[in-house]
Amino acid sequence: MGMANAQGTAPAAASAQQQADAVPLEAFSHWPDVADPKISPGGKVIAAKVRFQGKQALAIIPIGVGAKPEIIARDGDFDQQGDIVIRSWRWVDDDNLLISLSSRQNFIGEWFDATRLVAYNRSTRKTTPLAWRGSKFAASRILWVSREGSPSILLERTPDNDDTEKFGLPEVIRVDVLTGDAQVVQRQMTGIDGWYADGSGVVRLGTGRDRDSGKMTALYRPDAQSNLRTIFSGHDDRYDGVALPDIFLNEPDKAIALSRKDGYRAVYELDLKTMQLGRKLFGVAGYDVDSALSGVDRNTLEAVATTEKRSHLYFFEPRLKEIEQGLEETFGAGNVSVESADRAREMIIVSVSRPGAPGGYYVYDTRTGGVALLGWVNGEIKDHSLNPVTTIRYKASDGKEIEAVLTMPRHRAGQKNLPLIVLPHGGPWARDSEDWEYVPWAQPLAEMGYVVIQPNYRGSTGYGRDWEKASEGSWGERMQDDLNDAVASLAAQGIADPKRVCMMGWSYGGYAASRAAQRDGSKYRCTISGAGVHDLAAMVAYDKDYLGEYGAKTGLGTAGRLETVSPSRHPEQYSTPILIIHGEHDQRVPVAQSRDLVRRLKGAGKVEGRDFVYVELPRETHNLLLESSRLRVLQEMKKFLDEHNPAG
Predict the structure, then answer these.
(1) Is 266 helix (H, G, I), strand (E, B) or coil?
(2) Contact 240, 469 (CB under 8 A)
(3) What pLDDT was estimated at residue 3?
(4) Could you say which of 35, 92, 94, 512 would form a disulfide bridge with 40 (CB–CB 3.0 to 4.6 Å)?
């Protein structure tokens, strides 16, 4: 994985032979060789997760030709039972790295993610738990990091005390990173479940939402000497929300906020005295802004993140804007994303990829112009473009236009009427783009010979308030029609054979695949449901504990006629073969959802092995954390498709 010198060169194009060779399924199951690299403030070292012995490990990578990573921790290393997972990391300075951990714990019959924070000192190789004692549930959210003097942070945590009225509500403590010593700077307050600090380390904002009623409260103060005052109390628009500060500007009572006041999320100035939005600073026609990013001083707007056809950063900071433009001259427009930078903005980590290629991470030294490879996202595929990926738009049966990602099988270039996989994303409040997927599904399916369509159906995020809100009352009906309409559109163009179509999805996509087998079996030769919801009423009841009354109500509770659109309530109507896959330890969508569907299918006279296949993944969660599980899912998919909708 060393940083081989690649100064001034673009990733090499794949040879004709490489393009012709099929990529094995095993390659798509791999963890990234490098993930989420973060460069230290002084630009000396990089922290990243790396693929190590078939798993992931956190490593420190010195900058230099041939430098080798130093493994500092693997998942489970901080706990004798081995169930603690490394979630994220960030530098305080060139010596001290903060590592966020989580583990599944049971409290009064309910499972939840308990989080903690540790500091790792690169010089002493000492690990220091930060505020573990006196913490309960969550204790890893960092609000502020010092830039000079003895390293310290502001940490939000849930205190372990006997105040039942404030059970589960956080306080803010200032923690010495070297010693772990802590002092409270903001005590718990009834109704506040999140705190926010400005660039100077002053806690300026607290927000909260009642789990049952959904009522939102926001408290604000202009400086450390003032008292918190209520700036909002009431019920906000779920699809817009209250405009609250994302970045506190370095002028009194001024902030940067995101709002959908004109239908699409954009960036505005915000007056915190009046809570009125001011000048619109940035927006993209037809798309929502994802987030606003602050600069080194944390008091300025440095960049805006969006997802259009691909994810993209628009820089306001002139130096980074110039750096990105220079890199795009080497690697191609739209192929470069700045991932991390040192404080001086001299050493930059960028990801480089094209649609259909996982790509890799490079280190750019702005002082010398040198560009060096840090590591690949996928060491077997590297930067080779696989199956072509484009963004298309098609008309739904009611005339609405829907954006979708289309992946064409490279081994069948120029062929017509190909077999098709409809691949709806999870959520449903999410979306697909041309970016390489965290868990790739479209590429391996296309590698098998299928056209793959990923519709951003009604309810998908990123397309404005009205499109997202259109999910209400539409689960399994209009949203399902949007998926079927993609088939009709591709068939009309001669791209896909409407008689050779299957649907595959995970989470909400798993629900859609199950609904397709029950409602629209005549349109599909088979469906594959991963971690799917099959009984919406049972899921709402589960979510009342998992998310609270309000979360359950505004989530699946807005789906529509729950019993009517719950496929497992109508097992006798399943009319096409379905492969059902679920993780044994899935806490987001409990495995009971799939076990119950299997029980009902058997009760309706459906035959296992003919009408349905059930695969339960041991030790697995909702997000497929094991390479072995990812590979097995791909193998089971291929076996099922070969039987019911062969690509040949």
Answers:
(1) strand
(2) no
(3) 43
(4) 94
Query: How many other C-beta atoms can be found within 10 angstroms of the C-beta atom of residue 317?
Result: 17
Mean pLDDT of 215-235: 92
Q: Which residue has the tokens 């300075």?
A: 93
| Residue 562 CB coordination number (10 Å) | 18
408 in any annotated domain:
yes
Tell which residue, 184, 149, 185, 191, has the closest CA to residue 167. 191
229 token code pair: 């005052």
What are the Cα distances from residue 212, in Å, to 24, 113, 193, 209, 551? 48, 21, 14, 9, 8
DSSP string covering 460-502, please?
-TTS-HHHHHTTTTTTTTHHHHHHHHHHHHHHHTTSEEEEEEE
Q: Does residue 274 have a pLDDT over 70? A: yes
| 303 found inside a domain | no
Q: Indicate the burial class of 14 (C-beta count within 10 angstroms; 0-12, 13-18, 19 or more).
A: middle
Strand partners, 511: none
Task: Please state the length of the chain.
Answer: 648
CATH number at residue 608: 3.40.50.1820
Q: 3-state DSSP call for residue 140?
A: coil
Q: Which domain holds residue 395?
A: 389-644
CA atoms within 13 A on the CB side of 541: 8
- The DSSP result for 568-631, as a single string, is GG-GGG--S-EEEEEETT-TTTTTHHHHHHHHHHHHTT--BTTTEEEEEETT--TT---HHHHH
Q: How far is C-alpha 440 from the geometric centre of its chain's CA atoms?
A: 13
Q: Which residue has the tokens 């779920």?
A: 238
> How many structural domains comprise the chain?
1
> What's the whole-number mean pLDDT along residues 198-210?
93
| Nearest Cα residue to 418 out of 470, 333, 495 | 495
CA distance 476 to 562: 10
Cα 505 to Cα 513: distance, rounded to the nearest angstrom: 6
Q: Is residue 194 part of a domain?
A: no
State the first-to-last Cα distance of the chain, in angstroms, to the nearest integer.
Answer: 38
What is the model's pLDDT at position 105?
63
Long-range contacts, stretch 177-180, CB < 8 angstroms, 24+ apart: 177/92, 177/96, 177/98, 177/119, 177/128, 177/130, 177/150, 177/151, 177/152, 177/153, 178/96, 178/119, 178/121, 178/128, 178/150, 178/151, 179/128, 180/119, 180/128, 180/129, 180/130, 180/131
H/E element, 404: strand 401-407
Could you tell me the pTM of the whole model? 0.90
Q: Are 121 and 129 in contact (CB under 8 A)?
A: no
Report the SS3 class of residue 254: strand
Identify whether 122 is part of a domain.
no
